[in-house]
Amino acid sequence: MSITNLLENWSDFRQQHPSDDRPHREYKWAMSIDLDACTGCNACSVACYAENNLPVVGKEKFAHGHSHHWIRIERYWDNDGREFADQGAQFLPMLCQQCESAPCETVCPVGATNHTADGLNSQVYNRCVGSRYCNANCPYKARYFNWYNYPTTENVWPEPMNQQLNPDVTVRSKGVMEKCSFCVQRLTVAKSNARTEGRTVIDGEVQTACQQACPTGAITFGNLVDSSSKVAKQWKKQQVELNKDKQAKDEGESASKLRGYRILEGLRTYPSVMYLEQLRESAI
Amino acid sequence: MGKDIREDIAWAQINKDVLKSLETPRRMYWIILFIAIAMVGVAVGSEVYQYQTGMGVSNKNNSHVWGLYIATFIFWIGMSHSGTLLSAILHLMHADWRKPIYRFAEAMTTFSLMTAGLFVLVHLGRLWQVYYVMPYPNERWVWPNFQSPLVWDMFAIATYLSSSVLFLYVGMIPDLAICRDNIHAGWRKKLYTVMSLGWEGTDRQWRNFRITYLTIACFLIPLAVSVHSIVASDFAMSNMPGWHVTSFPPYFVAGALYSGCAAIITLFVILRYVFKFEEYMTLPIMKKLVRLTFAIAMVWTYLNLIEFASVWYGHDQTAKDQLIFKATGPYAPFFWAMIFFGSILPLMLAFKRFQTHLPILFVVSIFLNVGMWLERWMIIAPSFAHGHYPWTWDHDQWPSLVQWGIVFGSFGWFTLLFMVFCKVFPSVSMYEVKEMVYHRSLALKHKPAVKGDY
Description:
The structure holds 2 protein chains of 2 kinds. Chain A is built from 10 helices and 12 strands. Chain A is α+β, with helices and mostly antiparallel strands. In chain A, the strands form 5 sheets. Chain A has a 4-stranded mixed β-sheet with strand order 10-1-12-11. A two-stranded antiparallel sheet of chain A has the order 2-5. Chain A has a two-stranded antiparallel sheet with strand order 3-4. Chain B contains 16 helices and no strands. Chain B is mainly alpha-helical. In chain B, helix 11 (317-328) crosses helix 12 (332-344) and helix 12 packs antiparallel against helix 14. Chain B is globular, with a radius of gyration of 23 Å. Chain A binds chain B through residues 61, 64-67, 72, 74, 76, 94, 103, 106-111, 127-133, 135-137, 139-141, 143-149, 174-177, 263-264, 267, and chain B through 53-56, 59-66, 123-127, 129-130, 132-133, 142-145, 147-151, 154, 234, 237-240, 384, 387-392, 395, 397.
């Protein structure tokens, strides 16, 4: 975009979406999470710990906010005046939203966090200097910092737990930022297998660890470019569009049957995770 | 109002008085130096511990990732601004009264920038990889992210630091020659000989000197304004409630000049006592300085009110909640202390009787800077404690002693550099004071029997 163009089409520029310039051709990984199905069991979080070599920081550090759950279950005790306290909380699994226009990417001084062609928000551990600007600018606070050198800390992976570390995933040392990667190691394997066979990844061929572990199937993950994938169908049914900052659900009474929304959309981050609103009154 | 300086001081006397500051300060000098070194020790100890153990010991957490380091970083960057104000802007405006005090103000600029730079390092999770931020040629063709305000910061601070070191040095050349000619042989004589670059005070040298000095002064002014605007961009360019404010750059610049002027008052009082500069750092000059500080304090207050008003009447509910949180939440005591020290206390400076009362000014100027430090902290911490997302709302964190230790030690580091400078280099500009005395005696000759101030 040249300067003249910028001046002439300033309002267009403000409305422009990052993927207008570079559309996703083969893959756009996306997720949808059904809050009606989520029981808050934390299995996703545990699976993520196992898959992605997340350090178990222990009670004391957890209390200091040094937790490392790339996916966390949040509890909400009231919503729009409806009290849930006597029935239990509402749950919301929060993970990196893999924003299309990610606030973390623009501010990183060294370019350690980037956008991939698959629409993922990648984190390059080797490049990270630990300025933590990305976390400061992340509205979801879905990024986690290595406050200590966990691999050498006692009781993080006590013997023989270190044997279960995933060889496909780096063990991060102190001073780098990390976050949910949509299990990029699995995606890479699936893509490479598909490429060998001269096709693209079939829906259901690859699952994220959290999706795999979810007992109620609340998490759906897949390729948004593939219109036959389950996640694309869900997005379509809920009329949630990647490039919009306001979805049909919020636009009028006629859309009252829709449940799909994305969190903090007004900030124009264009997240890749759609949530399905919880309708049921009781906790579980 | 009395005279800025006596017109009957002999030039030789000026040399003698200023050169004396390089030789025999009061005992207070050594006490201050010792305390400063002890404070630096605390900071070094804390930093070594933090470096070895990890950033976790500073008690920040995953929703509260920045803390006192960044707040104090802004504070020191801000402090550096009034040196440039005094030495460059007032130089262009021909404000004569700046002459006896601009040298140490300019030194303050340099040393507070050096202190600020350390905070960037202390703040980084992987300090040993800091060079990634610089655009150095490498075989992988990996460059820093030029979109990031932190990279702009790096450029702005590096440029500002190098230019102000140059400005300080160039402005000192004629004085270094005086030192060279008057000091007994020793390492200092060698130092001054090398640094004065063969200055002899010929017409040609003076002419070139003036042009060079003026050029750097003109170059430095937009630089000073841009540096703090860029630091403000670190915040204004982000989307955090409480940071995403359009008026941040001018607000930061005003705050910077404010804290810098307050610091100049503090150092004025200290230097005047420690190095016996009563003849040069006179009360009428202090009066002008205090009035300048008062004016800037009011500008800062005005910009503060603008920020509150634009948030209050804006459409951004999160930012409004954030403002209410600041004023009523756990940070309320600090927030109101900032308002008191920053906006209410300087009202004292409007009264004539306080404008030359050194002990009161000393205490007040320190409190003004406490207020300005709180301002920076009140920008950082509450935004993390009350962000867009509810998860941050119950993850507040009080800074640990490691953080406080490093912040505490930074004041020692600054004092140490400053005090060593004042002992090694002339902290009052001899040639400009002579110029001032000369101008004044000329004025008296042409305008005899002027009553009062001229």
